[in-house]
Structure prediction request, 510 residues.
Amino acid sequence: MTGGDMWAGLGSTVAGIMFAWAMFQQYVPLPLRRYVAKYTHRLMGYFYPYIQISIHELTGEHMKRSEAYTAIEAYLSSKSSERARRLKADIGKDSKSMVLSMDANEEITDEFKGIKLWWTLNTSIPKTQSFSFYPSADVKHYYTLTFHNLHRKLRKLFTNNPSENWRGSKRSMWCHVVFEHPATFQTLAMDPEKKQEIVDDLVTFSKGKEYYAKVGKTWKRGYLLYGPPGTGKSTMIAAMANFLNYDIYDLELTVVKDNTELRKLLIETSSKSIIVIEDIDCSLDLTGQRKKTHEEDEDEEENDPISKREKEEKSSKESKVTLSGLLNFIDGLWSACGEERIIIFTTNHVEKLDPALIRRGRMDKHIKLSYCSFQGFKVLAKNYLDLNSHHLFPKICRLMEETEITPADVAENLMPKTITGDAETCLENLIQALEMAKEEARLKAVEETKEKETSAKPEMKDESLLAKEEAKDKDQAYPKEDAKEGESIKADEALDKLLERETLEPAPDV
Ligand SMILES: Nc1ncnc2c1ncn2[C@@H]1O[C@H](COP(=O)(O)OP(=O)(O)OP(=O)(O)O)[C@@H](O)[C@H]1O
Prediction:
């Protein structure tokens, strides 16, 4: 086939397609055309793995300029002058400077959190004007943002206590950033069986839509994560979110004004999300609020006017969320708005929490995160040093049985401190840290025993003094008429000696 034949063949194919398209548009009824269009789009979707988002310049009934369009224009302004080939010049707001922006049908490549994006400025021309060469006032502009389907769902981390650079809309009480924590259940140092149990629980929950509907329960689940600092509570939340592909709402209770605001925040959370209240024991004086009666408060205030004023000032700044408000948040009627939600409380002091807050049904699963076990260490050794075994492992195992160390401390020691730092040095660092922890624990125990002894002694002395005073009182109240002065002095001396002996004897263990 010659080049000329090929071009002639291609030309007639294109003409054939265009003719068929014109026939289709003219003679096929609209509902059928729509039906065909719908399925062609779906089919195209399999081959075209990109997502496109259009942001139109004029929106709404009154065709007002969209805020989003203006924001994108401003955002792209500097990028356009650097990267676009065809630029549009305009006079700036101050009428002195020239503002450059991308021209119609121009494309700019951009990057967001490592994801490649394309911005295009498009024009849509009304059908009646399609063949006019002159710009028309009816020509509408819109930006198109294109990115790969893979990045369609970026997990988000929301907060109700944002710092300056957090994004959010004026209407929402939550602000967000893209959630990018790398933690997974694989990298979590924990006993494998316990870990598997949690994973199974999450899978059962996420597939439980019908089950929850059948038993008449809202599709939500509460987890209480408790344990000492550095045992992986926050890390586990991140692993859960990554595993389930859920967003996280990090609820800072101390900045929530009152129960009404708490309810509003709850309503604004989306499905497929984890709502977290970290350090719940520090967030609110929940136990105090319940136990302290009103009368007690009044008594205290009357006795101390300064404390009353201080309290008033403090309470005007502090959150007025109450325990009952929080209980309502977890399982009140409003908590049923939305589904597939997990609520997590974390605490370092589970014993401080009001039992009502963490009873089963509210916090369905209580997960204790504890000091690092040898199994946990092996996970970290694999993560940090790519080691499955080492001749120092048995020593580490023995030390871990003898002392307590958090996974955070183990992780810190397993991180090479220099570029040339090898696995052996890291393991030796860990052994050193374990030996230090063991020694510290021993010294602490000695210190505690001493403290117990000293705190027990004054008590005994006090009791003895009391006995002495009582005896004296008795003597004064019922003076023995026949007792001679010398005898009474002797009795006192004997009592003193007795007391001296008692205070010198070691105190019994309490
Ligand atoms: N179980 C664990 N598995 C893997 N890494 C862990 C684990 N626990 C802690 N770490 C490491 O220690 C760091 C601190 O842990 P994390 O913040 O999750 O602890 P926490 O229990 O939430 O502490 P806190 O109570 O102080 O908030 C993490 O960034 C992680 O690198």
